[in-house]
Amino acid sequence: MVHFERHTLSNGLRVIIHRDPSTPIAVLNVLYNAGSRVESPHQTGLAHLFEHLMFSQSLHVDDFDEAIQHAGGDCNAFTNTDITNFYDMVPVENLETAFWLESDRMMGLKFSQEELDIQKKVVIEEFKETSLDQPYSNLWHLMADLVYKEHPYRWPTIGLIPDHIAQVSLPEVKDFFHRWYRPNNAIICVAGDVDPQKVLARIEAWFGQIPAGPRIELPPFQEPLQTHRREIIRKDTVPLPALYMGFRCPGRLEPGYYAADLITDILANGPSSRLYRRLVMDQELFSHIDCYQTGTLDPGVIMIEAKPAPGLGLEEAEGIIWKELEDLASSTIPDRELEKIKNKNEAAIAFSEVAIVHKAMNLAHCEWLGEPDLINQEIDHYRAVSVQHVRDTATELFQKQRANVVFYQT
Questions:
Q1: What is the pLDDT of residues 89-139, one digit of tens each?
Q2: Which superfamily does CATH assign the domain made up of 230-409 to?
Q3: Which listed site, 138, 216, 338, 342, has its alpha carbon 20 to 30 Å from 268?
Q4: 118 — alpha (psi -120 to 50), left (phi > 0) or beta?
C-alpha cells in the first residue's frame, strides 16, 4: 500500500506527498498536462521542444543541470502524447534546491532568440536521427496517420515535420509557455523520507505565489469508428522486410484497458508467450515479433511488429499472425496461462514501486488521470480480468476491417 497526502494550492497547483523512510533520496516530480495532444496540426512538436527549453535559463537560474548537480542530484524529463514530465532526484537534505529550481522555471523562462535557435537545432537533429535516418524510424508517422484521422494522436510527439519546429517564432513559444506551463496545469509529487507538513509548507512558500494561467479545458477528442482496413506499402532502405499491424484499443481509464494489456503479454511477453514460442522458436517463421500497447489516455494502439524469416512473404506472414489472433479470440485460454501472465504483471508493478523515482512519477500520473488511488488498485484491476473477458476483448479488437498495416519492403 502506497500512502500519500493530496493538497491543492490556491493557484490550482495539485500536490501529492509520499513519505518513504527507506531511502535517503527525495524526488520532486513535476507533471504538466501538456503533451503533443494540445498542439495544432499546423504547429506540432512544441511540447517536445519545451522539454528542452525548460532546461534553459529561468528568472534566477542560469544552468538548471549544473545547479542540481551541485546539490548532489540528477534530473531528467520526457514528453509523450498526453503529458510532459520533469523529475529531480536529490539527497533529502537538499530538497529545497529542487523546489527553488522547479519554481523558478515555472515562474518564467528567460526567452531569447539565441537560446530558441540553439534548441531548435537540437530538436531538429533529434527528429532526423529518430524519425528519418534510422531503419523503420518513420513507422509512427506512418502508423499514426493510418489509425487516427481526427484525433491529435495522429502526429507523433516529435512532430509531423521538422519545418514546424524550424518555423516557430519566439512570440509563439512564449504564448505556448504562458498557456500550458502554469501551476493550475501542473501536478507536483514529492516522495522520500520527508515530513509531509513541512514539505507542504515549503511548496506553498516556493510555488504558492506563482500566478495561475488561463483555465484550460481540452475538448473531448472523438475518432470515428474505423470501418475498413488501411494499409501502406513502404519501399525503404531497411535491413529486412517487416510488417506492423495496429489496432485501436481502449484508453487508459476505459473498462477494456486491463484486458487489452494482458492480451499483449499473452501474445508477446517473453519466450513463453504465444507469438514468440510458436512462430519464432517452434516454427522459425519469424526472426522477431513483439506486441505492446501505447497506454494513452484516449483510445490508443495495440501494435504487433514482426520480421519474417527469409523466404516468407509479408502477406503470408500477416496471414499467419491473423491465425494466432483468431485462435486467441475463439479458443479457451488455459487458466494457468492467464494466471502466469497476471503473476508476471503483478511482479512488474511491485518492482516499479521499489525505486522512489518511479513511485513519484506513478503517483503524479494517477493524480493526472483523476484517480490518485489507482496506484494501489492496479493489481486488483488486472486480477479481475477473466478468461472470457480476454476472449471478448480480443474478438472486439482484432477485426480485419479495423486493421492498420504498414509493410516495409527492401
A1: 999 999 999 999 999 999 999 999 999 999 999 999 999 999 988 999 999
A2: Metalloenzyme, LuxS/M16 peptidase-like (3.30.830.10)
A3: 138
A4: alpha
